[in-house]
C-alpha cells in the first residue's frame, strides 16, 4: 500500500493504527441458515443465563477422529527465548472419538473415548452419564447440536423413556453456542496438539489424565452474551455484507 500511494511504511502504519485497522488478520464467519435460529438461540441462551432452579445443565458433544500422532523425533524442550519444538512430520497410529459432557454449574467434565461415534456409542455414553447423576436431580437440561447421532430414533426413544432430561438444540451451524466446544478447544490446544502418542491407547490415557486433572481444578465457563447482543452482532454482519457489494 505504501508503494502504491508513494508513502513511507511508517505513514501507512500510523494510519492503520489510528483507525484500529489490522490488515494482517483474517477471520471467518458463517451466515445463519436455520429458519428457527432466533427461537433456538433464545432457548439455549435462556438456559445459560437463567437456568431452572435446582436443575443440572449439561453441554454434550463429541470430538471425532482424534489422531494418535507420534513425532518422528523427540520434542525439543524449552530454552530461553525459544519455545518447545516438534518435528513437522509424524506417524499416524489410528484415531479415537471423544464423547464429553460439561456441567455448566461447576465446570466438571465426564468424558469417554470410543472407537466409533455412532448413535450406539452415544446411547452408551448417555447411560453412563445417567448413572453418575443422583436420582434426586429431577431436571437435567442438555445442550446439543443437530448431528444425526443426537436425533436418531433410538436416541429419541431413550430421552422419551427418561423424562427428567430436556433437550435444547443449538441452531444449525452454530456449534459455538455449545460451551463444550470451549472445553474441546482447551484440550486440543494444551494436550492433544502438544502430545506425541505411540498408540491409540497412549492418546486415550493422555485424554483421561487431562480430564482427571481438569476436574480437580474445574472452573466453570461463564456465558455473558445476551440474545439481544448476539442478534445485534448478526444484524451488523448482515448489513456489512449488503453494503460491501
Describe the structure.
The structure is a single chain. This protein has 245 residues and is α/β, with parallel strands linked by helices. It has a single domain, classed as Nucleotidyltransferase, domain 5 (2-Layer Sandwich). Helix content is 40%, strand content 19%. The chain contains 8 helices and 5 strands; from the N terminus they run αααβββαβαβααα. Strands 3-2-1-4-5 form a 5-stranded mixed sheet. It is globular, with a radius of gyration of 22 Å. The two termini are 22 Å apart. 21% of the residues are buried. The model has no long low-confidence stretch (mean pLDDT 91).
Quick gist of this model?
This protein is α/β, with parallel strands linked by helices and 245 residues long.
What order do the helices and strands come in, and which of them pair?
Layout lengths: L1 H4 L3 H10 L18 H13 L6 E16 L18 E14 L5 E6 L4 H14 L7 E5 L8 H9 L3 E5 L10 H13 L7 H17 L10 H17 L2
CATH class: Alpha Beta
The tally of domains stands at: 1
Radius of gyration: 22 Å
Instruction: Estimate what percentage of residues fall within beta strands.
Output: 15-25%
Major sheet: size, sense and barrel closure? 5 strands, mixed
Low-confidence spans: pLDDT under 50, at least 5 residues? none
CATH architecture: 2-Layer Sandwich
Please give the alpha-carbon distance between the first and last residues. 22 Å
Amount of helix: 25-40%
Amino acid at each position: 500500500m505504501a508503494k502504491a500511494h508513494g508513502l513511507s511504511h511508517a505513514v501507512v502504519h500510523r494510519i492503520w493504527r489510528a483507525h484500529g485497522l489490522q490488515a494482517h488478520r483474517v477471520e471467518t464467519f458463517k451466515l445463519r441458515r436455520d429458519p428457527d435460529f432466533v427461537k433456538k438461540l433464545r432457548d439455549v441462551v435462556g438456559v445459560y443465563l437463567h437456568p431452572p432452579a435446582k436443575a443440572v445443565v449439561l453441554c454434550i458433544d463429541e470430538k471425532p477422529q482424534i489422531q494418535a500422532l507420534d513425532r518422528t523425533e523427540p520434542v525439543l524442550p524449552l530454552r530461553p527465548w525459544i519455545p518447545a519444538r516438534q518435528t513437522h512430520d509424524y506417524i499416524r497410529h489410528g484415531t479415537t472419538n471423544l464423547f464429553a459432557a460439561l456441567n455448566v454449574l461447576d465446570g466438571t467434565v465426564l468424558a469417554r473415548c470410543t472407537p466409533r461415534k455412532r448413535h450406539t456409542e452415544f446411547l452408551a455414553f448417555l447411560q453412563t452419564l445417567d448413572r453418575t447423576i443422583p436420582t434426586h436431580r429431577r431436571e437435567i437440561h442438555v445442550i446439543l447440536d443437530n448431528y444425526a447421532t443426537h436425533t436418531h430414533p433410538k436416541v429419541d426413544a431413550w430421552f422419551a423413556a427418561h423424562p427428567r432430561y430436556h433437550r435444547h438444540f443449538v441452531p444449525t451451524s452454530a456449534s459455538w453456542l455449545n460451551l463444550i466446544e470451549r472445553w474441546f478447544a482447551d484440550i486440543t490446544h494444551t494436550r492433544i496438539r502438544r502430545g506425541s502418542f505411540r498408540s491409540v491407547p497412549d492418546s486415550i490415557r493422555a485424554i483421561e489424565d487431562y480430564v482427571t486433572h481438569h476436574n480437580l481444578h474445574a472452573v466453570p465457563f461463564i456465558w455473558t452474551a445476551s440474545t439481544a447482543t448476539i442478534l445485534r452482532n448478526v444484524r451488523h454482519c448482515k448489513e456489512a455484507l449488503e453494503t460491501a457489494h
